Amino acid sequence: MKGLGLRKLANNVLKTLARQIGAGLLQLVTLVLIARIYGPEGNGVYTVALIFPAMLASFLNLGISPANVYYLGAGKVSPSVAWRSSFLIFSAITVLGLFVGSFMIIVFSEQWFPGVSFPSLWVALLVFPVALLQSIISSFFQGLQNFRKFNSILLLQPFLTLLGIALLMFLGFHEITLLLCAYLLASIVTLIIARFLLQPYLSITNYPDFNRYSLTMLNYGYKAHLSNILAFVNYKSDIFLVNMFLGPAGAGIYTIAAQISERLWLLSQAVSTVLLPRLSQLSSDESKRKQLTPLLTRWVLWITCLGGIFLATVAYPLIVWVFGEEFSSAYWALVLLLPGMIAGSASRILANDIAARGRPELNMYTSFIVVVLNIVGNLLLIPLFGLLGAAIATSLAYFINFLMRLITHRYLTEVSILSNILIRRDDIMLIRSLMSSELFTTGARKEGQAYD
User: Fold this and answer.
1) How far apart are CA 210 and CA 52, in angstroms?
2) Which residue did the predictor score with more confidence, 102 or 11?
3) d(Cα 351, Cα 141) in Å, to the nearest integer?
4) 122 — pLDDT class (breaks 50, 70, 90)
5) Does position 245 have pLDDT exceeding 80, yes or no?
6) Least confident of 15-29, 177-191, 208-222, 343-357
7) How many CB atoms lie under 10 A from the CB of residue 323?
8) Residue 214 CB coordination number (10 Å)
9) pTM of the model
């Protein structure tokens, strides 16, 4: 398996994984503070309010970020051209998003966001353009494979959020709206720093001309965009529907189960972040892609499975000790979510391979079917089984998603389905090689060094 760039890839994955663990711990501490002081209902209000800007960004981003990762990763467009096109489209999206968001707050807030106050929703709406532009800038660092800056930016925002919320609590301010203001301020500061770090790349000119990049970006982006919309609905519909059926208190408890179980995705998210630009770079070498993706998919699947078993054994005392006895009912919801989370980790790797082949629409077709099944399952099972019903429906949807991605990848590559699932004998030798000291000296090399 020489020539796959595994040492460089592994080094970038480790950097990204370390950032995600750090960000996860910061988010967990923030969640604990809010849950301890505000209880299930307050935690639910905070979570549901932040779903609002995330929903707008997911529905309206037009796939700018994944398109930039794909074209920058493949070296087909200069950062300056990509930035001009991205910012132009971002400006139009911002105007539309603020209008749509205002309309939703005025007309539908009571039906769609029960228990969340008007001021909280207005503050949350202001998060939308900031988070969207920050995501676009981050996609440049991801596409250019500068994961040091990419990870620093994504770690800064949760750190500043925790700092702001802790300060508010220390000073005795306990309004949920003020917590959202702290989140907004942290996002703005992070955005300013990210834009400053991007500036040096915008003067690079040694790229081929790319006329009409905006249209090309949108042509790729809308396919990834529709897939991302469906993925967002798939990931968040359970919390949204729990809030509708069981109220903010139920959503607050279920959020704990979802947040903890999603920690299993840290590895797959780190691998996916690094893998997409790398696979785009290998667009002219199909044999290497056919080796790289199955290798990473099966290892991510089984490592995540081991993590799921461990999490199931420690989650109950962890929830009670960290969040309090009133959140103990989150445990069985978490256990039922684990099979889907494990399957979802491997599904994410396959989705990146499919997108790197310029076929993001295939992910969209799969996601559409899975979202329908997930929403229908939640609508049927939440009234019958409460939080457990939401967990069953969501876990089943993730598992079906994995099966469909396996079939899609088999169709595109003719790589057997078992190659993406079963560990091979030579994998052990490869992992031992990667764990050698050479792996850890790789990080000291200059950015942009050629892959092994």
Assistant:
1) 36
2) 102
3) 20
4) very high
5) yes
6) 208-222
7) 22
8) 18
9) 0.69
Average pLDDT over residues 279-307: 83
Contacts from 203-207 at CB under 8 Å and sequence distance 24+? Answer: 203/80, 204/78, 204/79, 204/80, 205/78, 205/80, 207/75, 207/76, 207/77, 207/78, 207/81
Q: In whole angstroms, what is the distance from residue 40 CA to residue 35 CA?
A: 6
User: What angle, rounded to 10 degrees, do the helices at 213-261 and 79-112 form?
Assistant: 50
* 208 burial level (CB within 10 Å; 0-12, 13-18, 19+): exposed
pLDDT band at residue 311 using 50, 70 and 90 as cut-offs: very high
93: its two tokens: 């999206």
Contact (CB, 8 A) for 355 and 66? yes
From residue 226, alpha-carbon distances to 129, 292, 318, 338, 361 in Å are 19, 26, 37, 26, 8
